[in-house]
Amino acid sequence: MPAAAEILLRLVGILYLLAGAALMRHLVMDHILDQALSGLTLKPIPIRDRIRRWLLGSTSIALGMGGAALMVLNIWAVPLFLFVAADQTIFFLWARKAFPPEAAATGSRKGLNASLFYGGVTVLVCWLGWAGHLHPWLDPLALFVPLAAIAILFGIGRHFFWRARRVDAWDVPEPPPPDPLARPRAVALAPAWGGRLLVDADRDDWLDYDLFVPPELSARIYLWGEVFHAGDDEDSREFWAQFSDKDHEAAHRMEGKAIVAELKLIFGEDETFGPNYPDDVRYHRETH
């Protein structure tokens, strides 16, 4: 056989080896997507899709093995190419009945040119085997044939065994509640309706400041908060600060800034905010 013809045949073999690997990868990605959708919808994968995947999966392995055999010009290429041709024929006949006419026609058109080219290569491979141009069955280079199958099956096809775990929505655990004893990252002296004074700035939630500040500072925060009042209506959440006069308000605001300065020594300059006051400020016993 001319050297140029040998090189061309080996290149065609490499082409089909890569085509077998590519087909297996496509089937694996299709399988993983179906598994994920099945896990989300709680519906089983249609049996026709499973049959299609197994038929094309056997084709991909035999295609890669046949390509490896042709790459080393071994006689194993003959039965492997014939197997793929038979497998393709069975698949196309089955697909015409298993899938809607539109899908089957689309698939047939896409695979027609590839099948015709493959059929021509198969005839050529059979002639090469009959004419004695291929190496014998037990040639050492024939080891590439099973190695190709192992590479395709275990390198790519092993993902066929992946299964999506189905989780019932009622079984999803709720996130654990925040630990009330955990030291907050940032705080704010921000009184609001509901009796809160010092809050966790990250969660905007009430904070038991007795756990994180010295007793003297805790007492000052408590006394500072006595000027704030709230209505009983939870819908309106009326909230105000009430002072005896302007001087009382000024002194109170100075004390709030002093408390925040003490808090900054505990929680940090950039992690302490306030003091905040409501817009509603009253004097003496003024009420609405």
Describe the fold and architecture:
The chain contains seven helices and seven strands; from the N terminus they run αααααβββαββαββ. The chain is rod-shaped, with a radius of gyration of 39 Å. Helices cover 56% and strands 9% of the residues. Helix 6 packs antiparallel against helix 7. It starts with a helix and ends in a 5-residue tail after the last strand. With 288 residues, the protein is α/β, with parallel strands linked by helices. The strands form two sheets. The protein has a four-stranded mixed beta sheet with strand order 3-2-1-6, covered by helices on one side. A three-stranded mixed beta sheet has the order 4-5-7. The chain folds into two domains: 3-168; 187-283, no CATH class.
Residue stretches low in confidence (pLDDT < 50, at least 5 long) are none
Beta-strand residue fraction: 5-15%
Strand arrangement in the largest pleated sheet: 3-2-1-6
Shape: rod-shaped
What are the secondary-structure elements, in order, as H or E? HHHHHEEEHEEHEE
Count of helical regions: 7
Residue-averaged pLDDT: 83
Structural class: alpha/beta
- Strand elements, count: 7
Domain tally: 2
Return Rg in Å.
Answer: 39 Å
**Helical proportion?**
55-70%
